[in-house]
Amino acid sequence: MEKISVLQDEVLPPSEPHLKRALKNRHIQFISIGGAIGTGLFMGSGKAIALSGTSIILVYMIVGFFLFFIMRAMGELLLTDLRFRSFADVVAHYLGLRAGYMLSWSYWLSWSVAIIADVIVVAGFFQFWFPDVPIWATASFTMLLLLALNMMAVKLFGEVEFWFAIIKIVAIVALIVTAFILIGISYQSPEGVTASLNNLFEKGTMLPHGISGFLAGFQIAIFSFAGTELIGTTAAEAENPKRNLPKAINTIPFRILIFYVLALACIISVTSWSHVPADRSPFVELFLFAGFPAAAGIINFVVLTSAASSANSGVYASCRMLFGLARRNSAPSFFAKLSRSGVPVMAIAFSGIAMFCGLCLLTIFPNVMELFTVVSTVATILNLYIWTMIMLGYMAYRKKAPELHQSSIFKLPGGRITSVACLGFLLAGFWVLSLQADTRLALYVMPFWFLFLFVSYRPRKAASDQVGSQITQ
């Protein structure tokens, strides 16, 4: 089996800068929230509800159920040896350098694409107040702001993302409280819809478009959860990973129930699924629907910052993965250059250029929701691939390092049986994407990306490739 350097501190001379363990528990917790709660929920959930009706709640629960176990598997892998800097190191160690190379570049691309989606949505929300400002101008300004923020010290980044996530949580709680009040007083909208829990159970609301509509909801749901694995990217900069990573992972079910399931149930209860717009944010529309335009403006600002927060987390994650590629000689060495504050500046600059190129898609797809669907589908495919590689890495770990599993303090519940079930779910996710015309095209195109990565990999006999042999197998 090929080895990979995961012993960054041993590979680099003491004089060279390292990624610094400056992220505290609250940073880790809220960065994971910030990455996972973004445009998929605030913007994409409108389309998901329109497609799946109230069954979208079941869709989110199913995806969240399996994702929790995938993250538990990732957590067990990372904590077997703290010299692993991210889940890409784990995959490279147990599945080989080529697998680590393909995963790392795919993770970089997944966030680069997702950031484009987030930034485009930010620009779309900005038009709520300034409809005459071109989307490309707002999107470009947002991108520059995010790149500048990520050039700062990681601790400052953690603080900014902490407060971004707080805004998200406050917005969702405000929506839930407002919905409870409207349901409690049986509020009736000008359109004649009464806010009631009965809207969740009326005939025809569960599967309004049949089983095909139910399955179509999985694309947005999976995209909504993209970023949850960001917990594994922060491992190299976590202050106390043995304590903080399990805490962040074990709160995932709670976050799913509150931020996804309950929020969507509230939206459908107040507006009914048939009145949820597919091309606009249901969070903003709920307050407009209830006759609170001022509150809708505030929520629009909150949703805008939430999308920016998700993009902010994405810049962080993609650049750290590119930094890791350079450390393993799988990317140009200048991507490993760190600033005095320990930030991979060249990786951020390159990622920024790639993302600006992606914004050129606005000239081809002027409709925000149409472009959002295209790029979110590409990101969904890449995330399914990433999660699949994590589970395959876990299976290889169980086979090749049983003694590490026995001594693990954070085991995956169900072990091999759970891992097989998760893998089956992920493969089913690829199949679901082939059922709809607007997601099928990306599914046909993406294999060329993986083929390119497979043939472009060149093994390098560098000293760093040999250090991984020091890890106990």
CATH architecture type:
Up-down Bundle
What's the domain count?
1
Overall residue-averaged pLDDT value: 78
Subunit organisation of the chains:
single chain
CATH superfamily membership? Amino acid/polyamine transporter I
The computed structural class is mainly alpha
Distance between the termini: 11 Å
Largest sheet: none
Number of strands: 0
Low-confidence stretches: 1-17, 461-473
The best one-word shape is: globular
Strand and helix order: HHHHHHHHHHHHHHHHHHHHHH
CATH fold group: Amino acid/polyamine transporter I
The CATH class is: Mainly Alpha
Q: Portion of residues in helices?
A: 55-70%
- The number of distinct helices, counting runs of at least 4 residues, comes to 22
Strand content: under 5%
Task: Characterize the structure shown.
This protein is mostly helical and 473 residues long. It has one domain (8-468): Amino acid/polyamine transporter I (Up-down Bundle). The protein has 22 helices and no strands.
